[in-house]
Amino acid sequence: MYFGGDVSLHLVKGFSFGLGGEYLSGTATKDKGISGEKDKSFTPFYGTNHKFNGWMDYFYVGNHGGSVGLIDIYIPLVYMVKKVTFKLIPHYFMSAATVSTAIEAGRGINEWKDYSSGLGTEIDFSVGYAVTKGVVIAGGYSQMFATETMQVLKGGNYQNTSNWAWVMITFKPTFYNSDNKKK
Question: Of 26, 54, 142, 172, which has the fewest Cβ atoms less than 10 A away?
Fold first, then answer.
């Protein structure tokens, strides 16, 4: 199951803020591979990469089958002044289903250790400058502050720094204009 939505409010000229969220259903880790248990994980059919769930692509790029799902709560802040646009989008990520690991309790009997549903916080920041009507230069930075639960799901060390930066030039030429305005 999937649902999501967001709203934004323009308070003063050039500044807007919003609130959004997405829910993608998941399967509890202790239910994976158990015969008769249904996979409840929502699978996005087409890659959306940076558009949803943060710019770092921690989720749903090549690993959506049998996942614990995802809850993404975010607050987009946008400030535009003349030809410059600033964006700051903090995300709080949670698992939609229970994350657990098996612990051997002796004599082959396993017990389950459940983890917090919190996966971490990602902060996305970008600045764009419109050089001309069809040319924009932009750059951005993202930082993930992961939790122990993220480490259980993804591996690695959740305490390590996880970030990336990018620079982009967007060129949108107009090859044909159908305006037939008479002067």
Answer: 172
Task: Look at residues 81, 90, 104, 78 and name the one whose alpha carbon lies nearest to residue 11.
Answer: 78
Which residues pair with residue 118 across a beta bridge? 94
Q: 162 lies in a domain?
A: yes
Residue 151's domain comprises 2-171
Where residue 131 falls (left for φ over 0; alpha for ψ -120 to 50; beta otherwise) is alpha
- Say if 110 falls within a structural domain: yes
Structural domain tally of the chain? 1
CB distance 64 to 30 below 8 Å:
no
Per the CB < 8 A criterion, the answer to whether 40 and 25 are in contact is yes
Q: Find the radius of gyration of the CA atoms of the chain.
A: 21
Per-residue model confidence as pLDDT tens digits over 140-179 = 999 999 999 999 988 899 999 999 999 999 999 888 888 7
**Global pTM value:** 0.84
Contact 79, 117 (CB under 8 A): no
* 81 and 13 Cβ atoms separated by less than 8 Å: no
What's at 92, amino acid-wise? Answer: Y
Lookup: tokens for 181? 């305005």
Q: Please answer whether residues 11 and 17 qualify as being in contact, where contact means their C-beta atoms are separated by less than 8 angstroms.
A: yes
What is the DSSP secondary-structure string of 22-48?
A: EEE----GGGTT-TT--------SS--
